[in-house]
């Protein structure tokens, strides 16, 4: 059945990004809305602006024009921490802290934004198992993890916080096919567990985009287009 837009989650209204040094336009004026229940994929050549757009939606880089909205409301500066709690950005190469996987998973709960929650090892273990990892995964040293395992740990670290939206910036680009499928399975399990969740998956792999998304967009020279559902 065709998708019927319902709850507006993240929206870009006339968002523009320029190179701070050269002044070149990296992202042309962009209008975009992500609704609850949508799984979107963005494909395009390297350097086309895919990551620029995703980082703008994550409010990691300031917009040169336009603005980002959450549930129909423009986000004020004071509201950015709360927004980032609901909208999580996952980089291609995650940063892992020294210590075990569990140490990395516990870290967010030391931050002010998450002081009202607590680490649940059983829940984290279930997330890891959804990606095909055993109960001992949390005891592994972060320094001993493969690239795929580090990406799984980074995803579990975010997913345990129950965000509403995932912004995935080529999280499997440097991984082997088995690890990539594990990441896809983990994201799929997260998506299916909540009725008002949505995600955007930036990928250079058209086949992967077809697997993980039902809405497909393209990026070319900073212009977002090709929106189909």
How would you characterize this protein structure?
There is one protein chain. This protein is α/β, with parallel strands linked by helices. It has one domain: Rossmann fold, CATH 3.40.50. A hairpin with a 6-residue loop joins strand 1 and strand 2.
Q: Please tell me the total number of domains.
A: 1
- Named at the architecture level, the CATH assignment is 3-Layer(aba) Sandwich
The CATH class, by name, is: Alpha Beta
Oligomer: single chain
Count of discrete alpha- or pi-helical segments spanning 4 or more residues: 7
User: What is the C-alpha radius of gyration, as a whole number of Å?
Assistant: 17 Å
Beta-strand portion reads 25-35%
SS content category = alpha/beta
CATH superfamily grouping: P-loop containing nucleotide triphosphate hydrolases
Helical percentage = 25-40%
Average predicted confidence as pLDDT: 90
| pLDDT < 50 stretches | none
Main pleated sheet: 6 strands, mixed
- Trace the largest sheet across and list its strands: 6-7-8-3-9-10
Query: What is the CATH topology assignment?
Result: Rossmann fold
- The tally of beta strands, per DSSP, is 10
């Amino acid at each position: 059945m065709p998708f019927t837009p319902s709850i507006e989650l993240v929206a870009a209204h006339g968002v523009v990004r320029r190179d701070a040094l050269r002044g070149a336009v990296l992202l042309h004026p962009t209008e975009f809305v992500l609704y609850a229940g949508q799984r979107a994929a963005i494909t395009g050549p390297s350097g086309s602006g895919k990551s620029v757009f995703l980082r703008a939606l994550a409010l990691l880089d300031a917009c040169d024009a336009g603005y980002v909205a959450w549930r129909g409301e423009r986000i004020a500066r004071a509201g950015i921490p709360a927004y980032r709690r609901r909208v999580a950005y996952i980089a291609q190469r995650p940063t892992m802290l020294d210590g075990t996987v569990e140490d990395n998973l516990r870290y967010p709960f030391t931050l002010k934004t998450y002081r009202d929650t607590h680490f649940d090892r059983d829940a984290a273990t279930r997330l890891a198992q959804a990606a095909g990892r055993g109960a001992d995964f949390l005891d592994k040293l972060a320094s001993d993890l493969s690239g795929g395992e580090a990406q799984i740990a980074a995803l579990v670290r975010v997913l345990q916080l129950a965000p509403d939206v995932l912004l995935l910036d080529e999280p499997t680009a440097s991984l082997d096919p088995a690890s990539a499928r594990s990441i896809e399975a983990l994201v799929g399990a997260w998506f299916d567990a909540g009725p008002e969740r949505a995600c955007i998956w930036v990928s250079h792999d058209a086949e992967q985009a077809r697997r993980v998304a039902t809405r497909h967009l393209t990026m070319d020279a900073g212009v977002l287009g090709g929106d189909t559902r």
